[in-house]
Amino acid sequence: MRFPRRFAWLLLLAGLPQLIFAAADVWQGRPLSELLLNLTDQGYKIIFSSDVVTDDLLLKGEPDLSEPLTGLRAALAAHGLALEKGPAGTWLVRKTQVPVASAPGVTEPERPALPEIIVTSSLHRLEYKSTSTQTYLDRDLATRIPAAAEEAVRITNRLPSTASGGISTRNHIRGGEANEVLFLLDGLRLYEPFHLKDFQSVATIINSSAIDGLDFYSGAYPARYGDRMSGVMNMSLREPQKPVETELSLSFFNASALSLGTFGGQDQGDWLLAARRGNLDLIAEVVDPEVGSPEYQDYLMHVAWEFGPRTQLSANFLASIDKLILNDPDRGEQAIANYDNRVLWLKWGADWNERWRSETIISVSHISNRRTGSLTLPDIVSGSLDEQREFDAFGIKQEWTYVPSQNWMLSFGVDGNQQDAMYRFDSTKTVSAPFDAILDNVPFEVRSIAAEPEGAQYGAYLEARWQLRRNLIVDAGLRWDRQNYTTADDDNQTSPRLGILYQVGERSDIRLGWGQYSQAQEINELQVSDGIDSFFPAQRAEHVVANLKHHLRNDIDVDISYYRKSFRTVRPRFENAFNSLTLLPELQFDRYRIDPISAQAHGAELMVSKGDGGQAVFWWFGYAWSEVRDKTFSGKVPRSWDQTHAVKMGLSWRWGRWDLSAAGEIHTGWPKTEMPGDALNSARYPAFHTLDVRVSREFAVRRGDLTVFLEISNLYNRANACCTEYSVTNTPSGPLLVGKEAHWLPLVPSLGVVWRF
Questions:
Q1: For residue 628, which of 228, 173, 180 has the smallest C-alpha distance?
Q2: pTM of the model
Q3: Which pLDDT score, from 0 to 100, does residue 561 have?
Q4: Which CATH number fits domain 124-756: 2.40.170.20, 3.40.50.720, 2.60.260.20, 1.10.357.140?
């Protein structure tokens, strides 16, 4: 890929601030708490109480921070304080016990336990008090809730704001399409982050054991997130808690190895290596060799080093490889595919002083896809396709945070991506009568498209968070995006955002969010397989969200939301009217184009929960009422994933070394189109309901811990209808059209073991 000269200035911009903030901080005479907060911002997990480290404790000298923990110990000792090792890689600040002479028979009073108060800087406090409605899902939660194929991102399906059939790791967020979600890993945007991406995307390319947590936004998110208009999944990498940690796992779905740790003096460096192989091909070979061989694997490497107390540089590499041979003899389909996805990125974080922080990411991405296939459904449709895609991107992203006072926080950033792509697509399709007269069909069709688009994407945002009063925070932002590779009319988008947080007492928060959101068609999203050889204008949507969170005195959390999402500009999309679970959807006779004028989604959600993944017992109950409609020239049509009512609930109980969890769901059946002659999505499938369970047991072994688990999806083997399959049967009176229901996943068991040491 060509390195664009016009991006060279961004490289200069990334290093220029060093000249501005070169002066070192002077600590003598400043509050001891500021030094603790500074080290906390650098990644040291220091826990202290404001009752112990009071504001009047000042640093009596200039601490030697060449070895931060050693310098901190000396500064604490001057005030009769000590630094002790705590659990899970933390450090605890305690008062030093001074021996005193006791009278005979008098016992010295026991030192009180450290209060559970974690003090953070004004910057972190303002970040925590976000005006956006987001959900944080951590590792403990992800390892306890049932999630097919051990995919951490699937736990978002347990939230009332999402809709999913249970096969794909993609989901629909508050009525949006599945491709309207922004995937971020360690701050980097990932393109096509799925295994088997043209075949239901059954897994992501990120090994779940390497993920520390996931921030999930379902609407009205801040201006720093752009170019996707329904949701954000922001994943953070796991950090080591020991010098070396290793995790080996094997299940029906995956074989995985993970190792991470620290190195260097004072643990200045850390590293992570993860490798995973999907086992679906091995299972298919045993259960049904005719299905084919869906093989995939992924690798993740990370190494980081702290250059002094304020700067960290990391190098990261992510790669995934798919080799697929898939067959569906009943439907006459065969597909072969090869996918190669590689991303290399450097990340540089710097705390210039107490007010300024920056983060810079430089990345290179390469994606190569090849797919061939054939279809033969006698008396209905036949065809073949051959597709090749290449995608390259070079990107630079820089974000700044400035905290001028206790009540203000300013964030701004820029990013640019130089991209190019290559498309080669050839297909033939023959549709037999009478099917050639329905939907968008013609009797015979040949497609041959070659394209090599190239260009750039630019983005910039400005965000201000202002704490007007102790209980009132306003977050206002503006985002600008531009694409120069498209000939569409709209290649510049401006998106204002506004969020308000009002705290009612100590237990209730009210959040209001509004914003304009845009989504350009990416250079790697040209719809050549459906005959489109040009880019459409950017899509646009307006979000309005109102949210109430209340914490009851019995530790039950209640979360109520109302949302309205108005799509003012919608790109045409292609769907299969009768059966979406096909290997080659573009060749099927039920393929049709949806060209809405606009669309609207609105709904109300309730979430009641108690506890979290770190507690012995936690449970949740969610309910959503929602509606999503496309406005077309023929009227309003429900989207294919519209579900009026949805109930999602679950329970997890840790009993000694046992862990038992269950998660269930029931929702209105999705819209259905029937033949012959029915209007699109005018009927509905029966209600969908399922129950997933997970049982695990930990064993202490000579080295480390061993966890054995059994997970069952769709425990009672509910036949949830998803689709209708049509065939032609010859009878004495002539050909007869026969339809039968197809279903989502049946009962799927998975037995696995995880060894941690």
A1: 173
A2: 0.84
A3: 96
A4: 2.40.170.20
